[in-house]
Amino acid sequence: MGAAKRPDEPAATEWPARLHVVTGKGGTGKTSVAAALALALATGGRRTLLVEVEGRQGIAQLFDTEPFPYAERHLTDAPGGGEVRALAVDAEEALLEYLDMFYKLGGAGRALRKLGAIDFATTIAPGLRDVLLTGKVKEATTRTAGQRRVYDAVVLDAPPTGRIGRFLNVTAETARLARVGPIKTQSEGVAALLRSPMTAVHVVTLLEEMPVQETVDAIDELTSLGFPVGRVIVNGTRPPLPVGRPVTPDELAGGLHAAGLPADERTVSGLAAEARDQVIRRELEDSLRTDLVELGLPMVELPLLPDGVDRAGLDRLAEALVRAD
């Protein structure tokens, strides 16, 4: 991301959007990448908000904290004096907030929850749930205090690629169906933000066939719906092999002897088979990488974390994102 910016400066040009939507096939590590991106964007004294909308409390689990209430809370500090805050958006609480904001229901809205009316409303109109979720994200992204943005960037840990198009497009559908009133106004505002240069949808993948295919399909869908696609983020990549061919049994035996390890035939043949598998696997990864490059989008590769995704691992991912150009 270049040199550190002051908090009042715009986000670095390498990540120019204000709202970063992070999606990806399940199992690709999109929550970890979203958290690392929030850390990266907060580097240098900025404040970012990391939001989740699926009710999994994945952020709390990732940072080993208590589940988050429906409130923006300090999550962690970032290098250079930055701060990452977190919010787990709850559709029911968002609806209560919405009713109070636009209809001044206050305590009456709380009474509706006791009667089960809110759960009923979001069940019979499932699109309303996504409108409320994205509406809260939009409010946080555009919120100001003293004529300044409260957050320099908002990172949304969004639903997976199989549902991302429907999730983001539901506001446009609601705006089309609701002819008047605050629901239409809010839906139109959210739809406009999600299709504006303020937003970028990043797709996380692995160098595996199914995630790469879902990435290609998701980008096609997002593009057809008019959403601005940002970067393809390839997670869990490994360094190149020191030798771009299978190691011969003689080479393996020589290496084992040099290390003072057993070099019997069974050991050598087993290692030789493993070496061949590794070369074949890397050739497949190179082919999949080429498929992603051909999408014509900026691409970032993040390293595999052998020890798992702990705070040190998140910092390592964030550093790689900071260095992305």
TrEMBL record:
Superkingdom classification of source: Bacteria
Protein name: ArsA family ATPase
InterPro entries, per database record: ArsA/GET3_ATPase-like, ATPase_ArsA/GET3, P-loop_NTPase
Cross-referenced PANTHER family: ARSENICAL PUMP-DRIVING ATPASE ARSENITE-TRANSLOCATING ATPASE, ATPASE RV3679-RELATED
Species this protein is from: Micromonospora thermarum
Residue intervals of the ArsA/GET3 Anion-transporting ATPase-like domain: 20-175
